[in-house]
């Protein structure tokens, strides 16, 4: 992403068609290129193509132009799902990345007993498949034999309703945080490790406090990595599927089939077989994700220049 | 001690006690991180304990302590024999899909990375930019379009529909390019050419061998990525016998939670199955730290 696509001048193609040794790089690239064409380019092209049509019971497949896209624009279910994700992301992403930064700084300072245990232990959830993590937490939250409900019952207070309409987004946010906190901690930690140690020695010699070192040296150097983590997190948030899909089992009235846009596209595809409309939703969602990432990069870049 | 030279994950990272700094903050720092470690372990400990319980104990005894009887082995036996041992089938599927995808992804990425690292050709910059750009395409947004294409080319409900898309690893290409640029001497390749070695031989005997750490990193990341994948197999595969662990277990989970009529018998099996299915990945991560840590930080740095 450092270099934007540089269009080749037409003259570059004037030279002869490659033969013999000159073919080697193309042959090396061919397997990747074929898979890329079949499973990335073709799906995008084909999905875009069918998103321009409408399946009708009597008339079969009919060209619909932008009708599916216009329908997405005015589809309350789609926007309500996006709204859920907005609420979710605005809380979950800062909390998770803030904690990850804190943990990385503490780890990096190295004044700990059992540092290796913390480093590996905190990373461990990343090795758990997301869907299994959601499954485990679903039981932990559960009102029937979830340990929190049991505890509440034991001390005779009403059980916390972790799967209620009000708490659901937080409950899901907790699962996602649990999965990725250690992952981002490790990435930040690796970035902190790359800071030359003589910087700290020089800062301390100059009489800087530990906090000043964190504030004026470590955090600014960590900044690009944090920005990248935010872009990934925005990306991941907007694609949320596993956790709400599994929580739906426990709380079908709280999580409807369009709780997140991906869940909506999934239901449209599997239950309703509305392929054309599902394709349009996927495209709009992809566009929203691209815009959100781009906007964020733009805004953070501008703030830096000021 | 120069911390910059110590890879983050190698044991012996406990250095850094800078001269002049008092270790007085050791206890509070350790306590602070312990709080997070407890948070991390809470659901895992719950899972381990639950896997040792009978159905009655799951409902009747406290979640964070063992039940009246130790039923882990009964659960394991039930898990692997239910429905003609379909769980073992799912485990094997997961393993085969992950292994084939990982080997394929590593080989394909190595070949592409080698082309970018050591050859000049038309469209080289543009092709690399497109591959890097593909990293930003939201994965799950691609899943439904991939499903459409698979249905058209006759790979709907076919394991290949999960395996082949999982072999595409733009990050893998990027990593292999870096590894080959840094780790494979182009003079060595030229010398081999002078000696009359074929290009395939050079790729296998020199490039793959010298870039082995990068190769293993891509292999690992792809293996874990496919093992943990859920959305793609969920959409592509309809027959139970093709399910990987994630899809199979979540199907049981839904049955156990929703269905009446004795389907709650499945509960201990879901718990035990979840435990069994996370152990291999955790082991892979613990045993092969050296390889994935490089990939993680490079992947994030890209």
Fold and architecture overview:
The complex is a heterodimer of chains A (306) and B (302). Chain A is 69% helix and 3% strand. Chain A has 306 residues and is mainly α. Chain A folds into two domains: 20-68, no CATH class; 76-305, MetI-like (MetI-like fold, Orthogonal Bundle), CATH 1.10.3720. Chain A has a two-stranded antiparallel ribbon. In chain A, strand 1 and strand 2 form a beta hairpin. In chain A, helix 4 (115-123) crosses helix 7, helix 5 (130-141) crosses helix 7 and helix 9 runs antiparallel to helix 12 (275-305). Residues 1-15 of chain A have low confidence and may be disordered. In chain B, 45% of the residues are buried. In chain B, helix 3 packs across helix 10 (212-228). Chain B has helices at residues 26-50, 55-60, 72-118, 124-134, 139-152, 160-166, 170-183, 186-194, 199-210, 212-228, 231-236, 245-258, 266-287, 289-301. At the A-B interface, helix 1, helix 3, helix 4, helix 5 and helix 6 of A face helix 1, helix 3, helix 4, helix 5 and helix 10 of B.
Give the arrangement of secondary structure elements.
The complex is a heterodimer of chains A (306) and B (302).
Chain A: H1 24-50, E1 53-56, E2 60-63, H2 67-73, H3 76-109, H4 115-123, H5 130-141, H6 147-154, H7 168-193, H8 197-205, H9 210-238, H10 242-250, H11 261-270, H12 275-305
Antiparallel strand pairs in A: 1-2
Helix pairs in contact in A: 2-12, 3-7, 3-9, 4-7, 5-7, 5-10, 7-9, 9-12, 11-12
Chain B: H1 26-50, H2 55-60, H3 72-118, H4 124-134, H5 139-152, H6 160-166, H7 170-183, H8 186-194, H9 199-210, H10 212-228, H11 231-236, H12 245-258, H13 266-287, H14 289-301
């Amino acid at each position: 992403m450092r270099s934007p696509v540089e269009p080749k001048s037409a003259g570059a193609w004037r030279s002869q068609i490659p033969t013999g040794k000159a073919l080697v790089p193309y042959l090396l690239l061919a397997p990747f290129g074929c898979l890329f064409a079949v499973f990335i380019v073709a799906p995008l092209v084909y999905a875009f193509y069918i998103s321009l049509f409408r399946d009708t019971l009597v008339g079969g497949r009919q060209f619909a132009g932008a009708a599916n896209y216009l329908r997405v624009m005015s589809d309350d279910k789609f926007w309500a799902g996006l709204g859920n994700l907005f609420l979710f992301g605005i809380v979950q992403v800062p909390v998770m990345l803030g904690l990850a930064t804190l943990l990385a700084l503490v780890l990096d300072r190295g004044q700990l007993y059992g540092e290796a245990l913390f480093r590996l232990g905190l990373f461990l959830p990343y090795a758990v498949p997301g869907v299994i993590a959601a499954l485990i937490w679903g039981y932990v939250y559960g009102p029937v034999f979830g340990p929190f409900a049991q505890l509440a019952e034991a001390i005779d207070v009403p059980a916390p309703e972790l799967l209620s309409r009000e708490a659901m987004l937080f409950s899901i946010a907790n699962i996602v945080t649990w999965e990725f906190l250690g992952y981002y901690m490790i990435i930040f930690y690796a970035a902190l490790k790359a800071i030359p140690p003589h910087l700290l020695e020089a800062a301390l010699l100059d009489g800087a406090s530990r906090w000043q070192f964190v504030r004026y040296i470590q955090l600014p150097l960590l900044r690009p990595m944090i920005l990248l983590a935010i872009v990934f997190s925005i990306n991941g948030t907007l694609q949320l599927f596993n956790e709400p899909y599994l929580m739906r089992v426990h709380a079908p009235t709280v999580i409807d089939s369009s709780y997140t846009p991906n869940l909506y596209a999934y239901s449209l595809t599997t239950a309703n077989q509305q392929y054309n409309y599902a394709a349009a939703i996927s495209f709009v969602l992809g566009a929203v994700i691209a815009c959100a990432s781009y906007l964020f990069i733009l805004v953070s870049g501008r703030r830096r220049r000021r | 001690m120069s911390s910059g030279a110590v890879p983050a994950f190698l044991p012996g990272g406990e250095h850094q006690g800078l001269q002049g700094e008092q270790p007085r903050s050791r206890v509070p720092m350790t306590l602070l991180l312990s709080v997070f470690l407890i948070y991390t372990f809470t659901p895992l400990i719950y899972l381990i304990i639950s896997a040792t319980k009978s159905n009655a104990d799951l409902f009747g005894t406290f979640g964070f302590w063992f039940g009246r009887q130790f039923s882990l082995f009964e659960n394991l036996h039930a898990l692997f024999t239910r429905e003609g041992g379909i769980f073992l089938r799912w485990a094997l599927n997961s393993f085969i899909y992950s292994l084939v995808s990982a080997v394929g992804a590593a080989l394909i990425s190595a070949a592409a990375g080698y082309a970018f690292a050591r050859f000049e050709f038309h469209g080289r910059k543009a092709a690399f930019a497109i591959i890097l750009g593909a990293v930003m395409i939201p994965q799950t947004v691609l899943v439904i379009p991939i499903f459409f294409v698979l249905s058209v080319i006759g790979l709907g409900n076919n394991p290949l529909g999960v395996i082949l898309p999982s072999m595409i690893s733009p990050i893998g290409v990027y990593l292999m390019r870096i590894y080959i640029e840094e780790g494979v001497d182009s003079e060595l390749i030229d010398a081999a050419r002078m000696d009359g070695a074929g290009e395939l031989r050079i790729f296998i005997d020199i490039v793959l061998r010298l870039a082995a750490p990068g190769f293993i990193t891509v292999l690992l990341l792809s293996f874990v990525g496919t093992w943990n994948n859920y959305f793609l197999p969920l959409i592509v595969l309809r027959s139970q016998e093709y399910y990987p662990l994630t899809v199979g277990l979540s199907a049981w989970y839904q049955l156990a939670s929703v269905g009446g009529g004795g389907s709650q018998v499945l509960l201990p099996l879901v718990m035990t199955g979840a435990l069994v299915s996370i152990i291999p990945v955790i082991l892979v991560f613990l045993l092969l730290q050296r390889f994935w840590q490089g990939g993680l930080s490079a992947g994030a740095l890209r």
